[in-house]
Amino acid sequence: MLLVGAVSALAWNEPTHMVTADIAYSTLRAENPAALARVGRLLMRHPEYENWVKALPAELTPEERNRRLLMVAATWPDKLKYDNALKRKYAAYNHPEWHYINYPYTPGQPPAWTAPSPNILDGYKAELRILASNGNVARRAIALCWVLHLTGDAHCPMHAVALITGDYPAPAGDKGGNSFYVRTKAENKTARKLHEIWDNLITGSDRFQNVRKHADRVCALHPRASLPEAKELRLEEVLRSETYPAAVHHAYLDGALRGGTRERDAPALPADYLDNAERAAEKLAALAGYRIAGVLASALR
Asked: From CA 109, how far away is CA 115, in angstroms rounded?
């Protein structure tokens, strides 16, 4: 398992967004090729499309190229945060606060479904409305990237929660695990943010074959037929009934997980923590991929 450096509110890392896009591509290819073709045609109108194509290996087949382009599109909203040239060029479309919603979690208390706005729900609703419209096609192609990306982010447990305790007081709490430090093993000298660990559970490599391998693994473990709930995507319900509970149960161990407020105070994770977390993340990634396919097919009828 590869754990790389994290930045606040990164959400699933780029390779995992590529995995969910690959699952969506395969699902549409098998179940709704006409919708997949509409996705491809719209993506061609994205203002960065030609640059994306130039960056791909020349020897790709058309199918491989189209698959990779959907992966690239799914990562584009994150690039707006960290690529200075893109940040300047597309400042109007860079919304770091859209990548998450920090529902407060206080162990032993019922959920409080309040969170600062704007957040992921605001961004998703706005971009889905544009995607499904008959408006400017370049703008709709940008919205396509956002819908791809935010659907993935909505299935990342650390993007639906902020732990509130005496060590992590309201309103910010632990900032979605960004102020909650742990060590993956007791002997490790380097502490990690809990958020970072969850970002990188699926894979840390964006190599095409690696992404395909992990997408195939996730789908084999969680085939679409085994997840009837994947047919529906009501984002607020997903966040409240799936992603937030996953954070509570699998990330924070129902409040039992110990963490440090500083790197030097970080305790070790339980021995079975990462294996259990990875299993939870794989199911959520599968749901994200299948739901991306559904929402794109519905929006681009």
From this structure: 16
Q: Is residue 7 domain-resident?
A: no
Residue with tokens 């097919």: 297
Domains of the chain: total: 1
How far is 289 from 86, CA to CA, in rounded Å?
Answer: 26
pLDDT above 80 (res 97): yes
> How confident is the model at residue 233, as a pLDDT?
85
Range of the domain at 177: 14-299
Question: What separation in angstroms does the CA of 249 have from each of 107, 187, 253?
Answer: 11, 26, 5
Which tens digits make up the pLDDT trace of 131-179?
A: 999 999 999 999 999 999 999 999 999 999 999 999 999 999 999 999 9
The span from the CA of 77 to the CA of 161, in Å, is: 21
Place of tokens 């419209």: 133
Asked if residue 3 is part of any domain, the answer here is: no
Whether the Cβ atoms of residue 277 and residue 4 lie closer than 8 Å to each other: no
**Residue 270 placed within a domain:** yes
| Burial degree of 262 (CB within 10 A; 0-12, 13-18, 19+) | exposed
The stretch 39-60 carries a mean pLDDT of 97
